[in-house]
Structure formats: structure tokens, C-alpha cells
Amino acid sequence: MAIKRSLTLSPFVFALCYAIFGAGYILFSDRILTSLAGDYAHYQQLQTAKGWVFILFTAVGLWLLMRRAWARLSQAAEAAIKAEDRLRLALTAAGGLVWQARVSPEIGTEWQVTGGLARQLNLPEGRWFGFDEMAAHLHPADLAEFRRHFERIVPGHPEIVESLLRFDMPDGTIVSHVVV
User: Fold this and answer.
1) Of 168, 180, 101, whose CA–CA distance to 138 is shortest?
2) The pTM is what?
3) CA 65 – CA 44 distance, rounded (Å)
4) Would you say 53 and 30 are in contact if contact means Cβ atoms under 8 Å apart?
5) Residue 111: beta bridge partners?
6) CA–CA separation, 84 vs 34, rounded Å?
7) pLDDT in tens, the chain (180 residues)
8) HSE-CB of 18 using CA atoms within 13 angstroms
9) How far apart are CA 29 and CA 129, in angstroms?
């Protein structure tokens, strides 16, 4: 199945178009001004006006392009947020566990959990947990995998990492979940 790509201006193409437009504007407008100006003083006035017109055209063009790009970025961000909300809802409805991790140099990695499994484990939703608190709910044989899983979390460089972990439930049963 072919993916349909919309025609967009890459930064290089945009810069190239701007350079061609700017060079053409300067070259041809100087020729026109030379033919219109009767003397040097009049030519200087026309050059100043030409510069202001160039700034006006450039400002309007940049505004139009940025407005369009901003609208596309806003739509993409909104679609991503909606997709994440749908995923959270589906995981919660299926009794899954939604993890959110944050890493800081002072504290290390912390996790926040929501969803059906969080409630089954009696984990308060919305609170940040350290490694030891989270590890207390895991099957002892999975602690090394749990540590490897979250050591791969690097701030600013999200990577999809998948692990199968077993959780010790409060009623003594063991439940397996894929952690992404």
C-alpha cells in the first residue's frame, strides 16, 4: 500500500526559493529604478522605497508560510494527543498498566502508573515511584529485566522498548504483562 505524501516545502527548497526571489528582485528592480530615476537623489529615494517593499513582501510571505506550518504542527500534535488518550483508555479498559517515566540527574528514573493493573496492585495513581517501590510489585525473577528495561530510557531520546514482566498481585496470584 503506497503512502500518500503531501507536497511540503523542505527548509532547503524554501531557502532556495527565497534566494532566487531575492536575487531576481534586486537585479530587476535595480534596472527598473535606474530607468525611472532622473538623478541620483531620486534614485536613492527609490532604493529606500524598494528596500521597504522587499521587507513587506518578505514579512507577508514568511507570515503566510509560518501560519500554515503552525496549523499543520498544531493538528499533528492534537492528533497525537488524541491517539495517546485513546491508547490510555484502551489499556485501562483492558486492565492494563499505563507507565509514564521521567529521568532526572538528581533522582534517577521515576514512574507514574495509571490503569486497571495499577488499581489491582493498590498503587496510587498520579504519584511518582522510585525503582524500589515499583520493584516490590514485580516477580523476583523479573527484577533484572525490569532494571534493563528502564535503564534504556534516555531523556529526549524515546525508544520503544518492550519487556514481558510478571507482577505479584496482592491476592498471591501472578499476572504477566507486556511493558512498552
Assistant:
1) 168
2) 0.50
3) 32
4) no
5) 101, 129
6) 61
7) 444 454 466 788 888 888 998 999 988 998 898 888 888 899 999 999 999 999 999 999 889 888 988 898 899 999 988 988 887 777 767 767 777 777 777 777 777 887 777 778 888 877 888 878 888 888 888 888 888 777 776 555 555 566 778 888 888 888 776 666
8) 16
9) 66
